[in-house]
Every structure is written in structure tokens, then in C-alpha cells.
Specification:
Layout (H helix, E strand, L loop, with lengths): L7 H22 L7 H26 L10 H17 L1 H29 L3
Keywords: Membrane, Transmembrane, Transmembrane helix
Length: 122
């Protein structure tokens, strides 16, 4: 990521991976048969937190600089902060994906609630 050119490998591939995790994590963290929007909200918020850390790790993985470049502990904090800032900028990519996934989960909750009403289980 410290190269002069933006390529598929140093920018596109990490963003594709992060976007995939943004679509997958909420589905994995939400209980399958839940009828609660609160549980969906908790899963989405937890996914957002995980995505911040995960995207910082992915950007660090694709960066060609060494994390242990002879710096002291204070220098490592600056490097970690740089990756966290980069992951905050990536919200532009995974934020909309997470919102659309949230809407899909909310529709599933409503579909299950309506099915319960039709069956007389509500």
C-alpha cells in the first residue's frame, strides 16, 4: 500500500475482501430464527466494530512495509493508528454493504414474524 500506483492487488483486493466480510459477518452473527430487531441491531453494531479491526489488519497484511521496522513501542502505536485511520476511510466501501445487509436481515425478521401471525403462533 506504500507504492506510488493504485493497483488491483494493493487497493482493489483488500477492499473486495473487506466488502465480502461486510456482507458475511452480520449474517453469521445474527441468530438464524430470530424475530427480534434488537438482536439484528446488536449483530450489525458488532459487525461494524469487527470490520474496523479486520480492515486495519487486512490493510496491514497487504502493506509491504514491516510492522517491526526497528521502531520502539511508541512508533508501533503510530503505525497501528495509521492502519486504524485507513480502516475508518474504508467505511466508504463497507458501510453501504453493511446497511444493505442490515435491511436484508430486517426483512427476514419481518417475514418470520408475518409467518408466525399467519400460522397463529404470535
Amino acid at each position: 500500500m506504500n507504492e506510488d500506483q493504485v493497483t488491483l492487488v494493493n487497493t482493489g483486493l483488500p477492499l473486495l475482501i473487506i466488502g465480502g466480510f461486510a456482507a458475511l459477518l452480520p449474517w453469521l452473527l445474527t441468530p438464524r430464527g430470530t424475530r427480534s430487531h434488537g438482536r439484528v441491531l446488536v449483530a450489525v453494531v458488532a459487525s461494524a466494530g469487527l470490520l474496523l479491526g479486520l480492515s486495519a489488519g487486512i490493510f496491514a497484511l497487504f502493506d509491504r512495509r514491516s510492522l517491526l521496522g526497528g521502531q520502539g513501542l511508541a512508533g508501533q502505536g503510530a503505525v497501528v493508528w495509521m492502519y486504524l485511520r485507513t480502516s475508518l476511510a474504508a467505511v466508504v466501501v463497507w458501510g453501504p454493504v453493511l446497511v444493505f445487509t442490515w435491511l436484508g436481515l430486517a426483512q427476514r425478521v419481518e417475514r418470520l414474524r408475518n409467518r408466525d401471525i399467519v400460522r397463529g403462533e404470535a
